[in-house]
Amino acid sequence: MHQFFILQVVLVGVGLLRDSNGAWVQGFSRLIGSSSVLLAELWALRDEIAMALNLNIDKLIINVDASEVINLFSKLNLFTT
């Protein structure tokens, strides 16, 4: 007798903003649902930028640990080092 299991992965995007001293400013989370990891990372990045804009932050350093996102934006020349 064979048993089959269905594994459903639900993704959540989370992030936070810190000031120049490293102190917490604001955080967020978003339920993304069933999706790709790349899409979840992009949603989290979008939400972080939107949060910074809503707080009138005009200079932002973004730390992303997803190599796919970094590669994608590097190809578009959107990241500066």
How far apart are the first and last residues' alpha carbons, in Å? 57 Å
Q: How many individual domains?
A: 1
Q: How would you state the average pLDDT, rounded?
A: 81
Radius of gyration from CA coordinates = 16 Å
Describe this structure in words.
- The chain has 81 residues and is an alpha+beta fold.
- It has one domain.
- It is built from two helices and two strands; from the N terminus they run E-E-H-H.
- A two-stranded antiparallel ribbon has the order 1-2.
- The longest helix has 18 residues.
- The chain is elongated and about 60 Å long.
- The mean pLDDT is 81.
- GO terms for molecular function: nucleic acid binding; RNA-DNA hybrid ribonuclease activity.
- InterPro entries: RNase_H-like, RNase_H-like_dom_plant, RNaseH_domain, RNaseH_sf.
- This is RNase H type-1 domain-containing protein.
Report a brief summary of the structure.
This protein is of the alpha+beta class and 81 residues long. The chain has helices at residues 37-54, 67-75, and strands at 11-18, 24-33.
List the helices and strands and how they pair.
Elements lengths: L10 E8 L5 E10 L3 H18 L12 H9 L6
Antiparallel strand pairs: 1-2
Identify the notable features of this structure and list them briefly.
2 helices, 81 residues, elongated, two-stranded antiparallel ribbon, alpha+beta
